[in-house]
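Good day; I would like, with your permission, to put a structural problem before you. A protein sequence and the structure tokens that stand for its backbone fold form the material at issue. I would ask you to consider whether the tokens describe a fold that such a sequence might reasonably adopt. I set the record out below, with my sincere thanks for your time.
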Amino acid sequence: MPDQGVQRRPLRYLVGVPGAPNYGDEVLVRGWLRWLASNNPDDDVVVDTPHPGGAQALLGEEHPRVKFVDTLWRLCWEAPNEDPWDAARFVTSALRDHGQAPNWIPGLRWVDRADSIHLVGGGFLNDIWPRRLGMLAALAEMNRRGTPTAVTGAGFAPVSARTADLLRALVGELPVVDVRDEASAELIRRPGARSGDDLWVTDLDSLLDRERAAEFDGVLCIQDDIAEVAADDLARRALREIHEWQVDPARIAVVECVPRADRVVFDRLWAVVPQMQFLGWTELLDRGVPAGPGQRWLSTRFHPHLVAAWAGARGTALDVRPDYYGPKHLSLTAAGSTWAVERDGVVVEPGSADPDAFRLHGVEVHRRKVEIARGVYGPGPGA
């Protein structure tokens, strides 16, 4: 950060959840850091995440002046209980009086002098993690001070009626709110706020490993976290899918987005399909997702659905928690994904049989994300 007496650089403050790790959260924040590296390379950048150490190791080279902290997340954790209203009150109080959270005063000074605060997309603001609603209180408070704020690619489901009232009150103060699915737009009563997931700000072709994709005819991505379906049931469903594919088992891959959580089904199936290959999360980040035309996929995870559908693979998204994953997967179906969505054995057919329709949708969402970014961060060099 700049020394005293030196002309101050703009400070861009991002809030997200990278570093846990989770493939989707990493590529979302990486995409925005790369955008800033191209358009605002001389600005200071602070990323506020619950996992600053992991995020530094993963993303520390994505912008020449990026730092990672957990300041605003600490405020959410310091709230007196799990009630989102109390979390919002405490975060607001601590931003107004740093003595309410004295341990985090150095980080709060960075928040105070931020030239913009951008809450990066994802599905982390809801009743599954109620304290996190304090993040929206932080943006609302900084907006009252005149700091430019933006929420992009957010997913707010599931929330109770009580939480929805708080959500609408906080979001109602913010000038730039962009969500990724229709359910979130309806919750905040801003029908024009829906564009799509923040991953669209990235060149999705850069997320693909087409060379390795040629090695696989079928790909599984099955989780064992935040799911309302037992791992044994998911393993049996995956085995039925493998039999339906009728492909060489050696040409089947299991890809991991969250360490351990996405290996449980693979370990259950290994005894009967030992030829399958397992690709860890670091391989997806370092090399890309092995997706391409002609493949069949079965995925509970949202971002593999998005990336593989973009690549031309066909598949089925298993909705393992309808109040959380349902809006996410169905948002892609509505946008033209060629994938079906399956919930409790009931299948929602694809929104389109033409993969180009989904790609055209992505181009339009990318345009909107860039328009928002330029409004928050400026037009960038050469504009």
Summary: The mean pLDDT is 96. The domain at 11-202+363-377 is CATH 3.40.50 (Rossmann fold). The chain has two domains: 11-202+363-377, 206-352. The first helix runs from residue 23 to 39.
